[in-house]
Design goal:
Elements lengths: L1 H10 L8 H11 L4 H8 L3 H15 L4 H11 L8
Helix pairs in contact: 2-4, 2-5, 3-4, 4-5
Length: about 80
């Protein structure tokens, strides 16, 4: 049952479900950038980046940044990839 819920949530993820800033943060997370570096690149605070990353993990239904990058690549959410 839990697996069904997780799989349903994963299947609902689309490019449209991520905000432009979350998508920008995801690109940098996928490049293994740390929050302070992401904050500097996006010109926001590290706390704001933490919120973006928390939202990304929730929306992608993954436990950590590594899985977020993997899932984003799998779904074709990263620039230069086709969905």
């Amino acid at each position: 049952m839990v697996e069904d819920i997780v799989e349903r949530k994963r299947s609902e993820i689309t490019l449209a479900s991520l905000s432009p800033r979350e998508l920008s943060a995801l690109e940098l997370v996928a490049l293994a950038r740390k929050n302070p570096t992401i904050a500097q690149n996006l010109r926001v605070s590290a706390g704001t980046v933490n919120v973006y990353v928390t939202h990304l993990l929730d929306k992608l239904a993954v436990p950590d940044r590594t899985w977020a990058a993997y899932r984003a690549a799998e779904l074709g959410l990263l620039s230069g990839e086709e969905s």
